[in-house]
Amino acid sequence: MTARTLNDVAFVEGVRTPFGKAGAKGQFAETRADDLVVKVIRELLRRHPELPPERIDEVAVAAATQTGDQGLTIGRTSALLAGLPRSVPGFAIDRMCAGAMTAVTTVASGIAAGAYDVAIAGGVEHMGHHPMGDGADPNPRFVADRLVDPSALNMGATAENLHDRWPQLTKQRADAFAAASQRKYAAALATGKITPDLVPVATRSTEQGWGLATTDELPRPDTTAEGIADLRTPFRPHGRVTAGNASPLTDGATGCLLASVDTAAELGLPVRMRMVGYAFAGVEPELMGTGPIPATEKALARAGLGLDDIGLIEINEAFAVQVLAFTDHFGLADDDPRLNPYGGAIAIGHPLASSGVRLMIQLAREFAERPDVRYGLTTMCVGLGMGGSVIWENPQYTGAGAADPAAETAADAARKAAESATVTMEGEAA
Amino acid sequence: MNTAAPASETTAAPGLTLPGEVVTAAHVRLVSVPGVAGQVALITLDNGMDHTRPTTFGPQGLANIDAALDQAFAAAPAAIAITGKPFVFAAGADLSGIGTITDREIAHAVGDLGRRVFRRLHDSSIPTFALVNGAALGGGVEIALHCHYRTLASNAAMVALPECFLGILPGWGGTQLLPRIAGPEAAVTVIVDNALNQNRMLRPDQALRLGVVDVVLDAADYLERSLAWMADVLGGSIAVPRKDYRADEAAWSAAVAQGRMIADLRTHGASPAPYRALEMIDLARTADLDEGFAAEGDALADLICSQTFRAGVYAFNLTQKRARRPAGAPDAALARPVAKVGVIGAGLMATQLALLFARRLHVPVVITDVDQARLDKGLTGVRREIDALKAKGRISGDEANRLTALVTGSLDYAAFADADFVIEAVFEEMGVKKQVFAELERHVPPTTVLATNTSSLSVTDMAADLAHPERVVGFHFFNPVAVLPLLEIVQAGHTDDAALATAFATAKALHKGPILVKDAPAFVVNRLLTRFMGEIIAAIDEGTDPAVADGALAPLGLPMTPIMLLQLVGPAVALHVTETLAMAFPDRFVVSRNLRRIVDGGHRTLVAFDETGSQSLDPAIAALWQQGDRPSTGDEVRDRALAALADEAHRMLDEGVVAEAADIDLAMLTGAGWPFWLGGITPYLDREGVSERVVGRRFSPPGIATLPA
Fold first, then answer.
1. How confident is the model at residue A2 (pLDDT cuts 50, 70, 90)?
2. Is the pLDDT of residue A256 over 50?
3. Rounded to an integer, what distance in angstroms lies between the CA atom of residue B96 and that of residue B135?
4. Which residue of A has its CA nearest to B26?
5. pLDDT, position A402
6. Is any Cβ of chain A less than 8 angstroms from the Cβ of B480?
7. Residue B421: in which H helix or E strand, if any?
């Protein structure tokens, strides 16, 4: 028997569709979920003509609801629809919000173990076609046997629970964080950090004819903390969670190309990130937003790292309060510059099972700009009380010496850009 | 600011409406396209229905496109692009509307309207793009030709200019633009050759090779990549070279001459449309667009108001609609499932049937014959055909294996015990057929449909002595059975609705377009053809020069001369059918002694061709033929043959052999390959005055399949 070695896993490329507003008025209202995945897969291949498609060993696509246009084993259907060789297999995967992240860790494990050389991982959620929990039939024992609090099945209610658990996580802090997310996204968009990772998608509309989606539809760049202070709290009377400090319902798809570092070298594929390790962890389902805390601790411990080693953090903003629970736990400031420098799901949207790869796409771009940063983290909370974290290493890292000045410069630039971007966006909207 | 956009008149065509127009909307959206400075005006053509009702153009739809162009030009976009709803770009003029125009002025106006609106895309100084995302026919292709650039989706089901097939020409600029863009040869291929070749469609790769489109893009992200291609064209990184075909006069003339040869071959001069189209293509070399479009408009108006176009539209509707919803068929829900088929006989016809049933129904097919040697020969024949299909790439290796396994042989009728449908194709003799059915009935359950492929015998008589005559139907194919779509389904005296419904369902599964006929001698097609051929043979028997008699029907543009048809059918079969008919109708059907002599002599070849390809009677046959001394002129022979057709068709309707004249026409179109410009046959007999002269009235009132009075 030949000796077994583990392979290093490279993040080669990531792209996503523009994200759209879920529902009849959204840009993807009449676009199929599987077609969104198809556009992503084809764009990944188009960007890497050096990759022979037959070298792809797996296509893992996540969706939280696996029926209708997200059904029939979407990893396989979308591979066939995208024109990949029939010899390329595919599967569907589900860990609710961490679907795409789990697709990545699953195929990465396969690469590490030598089962795959190259794989595509991604996710899709057309929340317009598949409202959250649609068609689910929860076992009555969950409530009857008090396995979970009834609020555990309602994500907004779990966010309210976080405010109860940690009274210092106030609505004001959540609103301020949300407004900052919108600002950071607008700045990133204005400085060209978002669009390069998007694949345009033709959008069908019976009423208006064909269009072309080239931008995210949901961001509200003029958001201020004051402006969202009085929004309705749909999950409780006089609660704290609002549409302003939560991610909106979203349609979108993401995908990435992973390869063993050796195969990347063989084929001339770029290594934009190297996977260091990952972990998933479970928490109380009614406090699902705390999931990233133990998941990150577990991943760091397994990697022999501490949070201080992490120079960039992409955390999914399902709810502002859930991010604050994470930052408070690790002693980070609410506006720590390492955190979501391009903004997060509160601005961009959170198409459940596709968001994990969106975090990685942004981290990969941030790595390229930040050779001073060696390690980055992508982390997210998951329904029914889970968290997932993946730690990545920046292959462009040139040494910690460059760190501080570069970081300051970038932060300054982002701030300035944010100010001018707000003006630009208003101008466009007019 | 771009000022060169040609202005639209305020109203596209005041008062111009056509009945029943499904109005196509033209939605305009200004979209941002990566790599394009400024916005792109993207126009979507959509009639608001799904792909089963393709987008078409009538006056109101054209007015909508005109208004959409106003809106697009007003936005001063970087480019204007036009595309269609899913799977369909546009299927051209609304045929049901165009086919009702009686006034040449209106015909002219409809042509002018489309050309004027589409030409705005051609004359635009803003680059225009057709994003042909799906099926494009006729006017759909023409609006694309007016654009400066064309992309085509790799899954576009059909691209064609079918106008000449129907009896008009591409009159919204197609005759002038296509030869300029793709060259005269490609124009002749698409406008004339393909249209006259059973309306052949272009596959995307063919459309690209001919230069009809500039690029074919994968269906998976067609619109996105088309817009990216547009950006590259606008940015200059993709150049789309254009050739000046008009410089080569010799090539142009040669292409047009080639087109005339094709038109002669296919229509024998009987349909004016391809010739007018060729004139226009010829003109396109020297004329400017104004002159060319004006001439095209005149030609279109003439053709829209022609009898041949009326017949063409009528024929088109028969083959597209009536063939799919046969008149008089019982409720389809009564049909019994067919999970196994039996074919009695292993001769050529039987083996063709076995293969057809296996290919289309994908159920076990058992063939039988009187001895092992014939059976083996039949099975070998089927397998050879399957191998040939595989070799041609028409079926996969797996499909070949599947079909080979499905078709088996047995000498024992017990093999039919669980068959749901058994068809006999044994020798055309009543006694033999009755014996076959009687023997079968001892093995099959009472629900098994027993079908006969007889071409002339009485199905009622054939079933008379059976315990269950209600399960017997006539199921008459036309040769070659894999090609000709007609099936005459015969309801015999006792046939019940379940057996009949099963026969119709089976016909549909076989991809045939059946007609329901009463049990009458030789049914429809053979009866008409035999009567008609009988007149030609009689004329020769009487002393008419065979060349004169055989050429007398040339003005109709039939697919072949009567003697050639006789050869194709086979003199023996023709004699047999004639004998049956002569027995039933001795006043009108006479067995020619010369025909009997030909059959007795074992002759199968009746015509000969000289070195120039001219057809004449084979010298051996001519020597055999004993003629009288009462020759007729060609005109006399034609009058007589047409009168016979009118008389016989009229009698068939009186006897109730079929429900309507439309069924006779459909049968002649799909069973005998008679041309669209005749509308089958009765529209021609009506418009030439033959019906009124012979039987005192028309088959259909003016305006149905002919021009209104």
1. low
2. yes
3. 19
4. A209
5. 52
6. no
7. strand B421-424
CA of B82: which chain A residue's CA is closest?
Answer: A210
Q: What separation in angstroms does the CA of B67 have from each of B38, B74, B172, B693?
A: 21, 11, 18, 52
CATH 3.30.70.330 fits B525-656, yes or no: no
Binary contact (B27, A207; C-beta < 8 A): yes
Query: Going by DSSP bridges, is the β-strand pair A273-282/A386-393 parallel, antiparallel, or unpaired?
Result: antiparallel
Q: Could you report the per-residue pLDDT of A329-353, keeping only the tens digit for each? A: 999 999 999 999 999 999 999 999 9
* Whole-number Å distance between alpha carbons of B299 and B111: 10
Nearest to A83 among B43, B220, B224 (CB): B220
Q: From CA B485, how far away is CA B360, in angstroms rounded? A: 13
Say yes or no to pLDDT of A165 above 90. Answer: yes
B33 interfaces chain A, CB cutoff of 8 Å: yes
Give catalytic residues of A, as residue numbers: 97, 350, 381
Distance from CA of A215 to the nearest CA of B (A): 10
In terms of pLDDT, which residue wins out, A153 or A406? A153
Could you give the residue numbers annotated as active site of B?
A: 142, 163
Domain spans in chain B, listed from the N-terminal domain onward: 25-237+252-305, 332-518, 525-656
The pLDDT of A286-308, averaged and rounded, is 98
Q: What is the pLDDT of residue B613?
A: 82
- Give the pTM: 0.93
- Model pLDDT for residues B233-249, shown as the tens digit of each residue: 999 999 999 999 999 99
From A27's Cα to the closest Cα of chain B, the distance in A is: 12
Q: Do A201 and B224 touch (CB under 8 A)?
A: yes
Range of the domain at A178: 9-130+142-425
A44 touches chain B (CB under 8 A): no
Q: B48, A206: Cβ pair inside 8 Å?
A: yes
Residues of A whose CB is below 8 A from B31: 211-212
Q: Chain B contact for A83, CB < 8 A?
A: yes
The residue ranges of chain B whose pLDDT is under 50 are 1-11
Please count the structural domains in chain A.
1
Q: Which fold has domain B25-237+252-305?
A: 2-enoyl-CoA Hydratase; Chain A, domain 1 (3.90.226)
- pLDDT-based confidence at residue A242 (cuts at 50, 70, 90): very high
pLDDT value of position B18: 86
CATH number among 1.10.3720.10, 3.30.450.20, 3.40.50.720, 2.60.120.10, domain B332-518? 3.40.50.720
Q: Which residue of B has its CA nearest to A198?
A: B34
Decide if B331 touches A, using CB distance below 8 A: no
Q: Is the pLDDT of residue A233 over 50?
A: yes
| A202 Cβ under 8 Å from any chain B Cβ | yes
Shortest distance between the Cα of A44 and any Cα of chain B, in A, equals 13
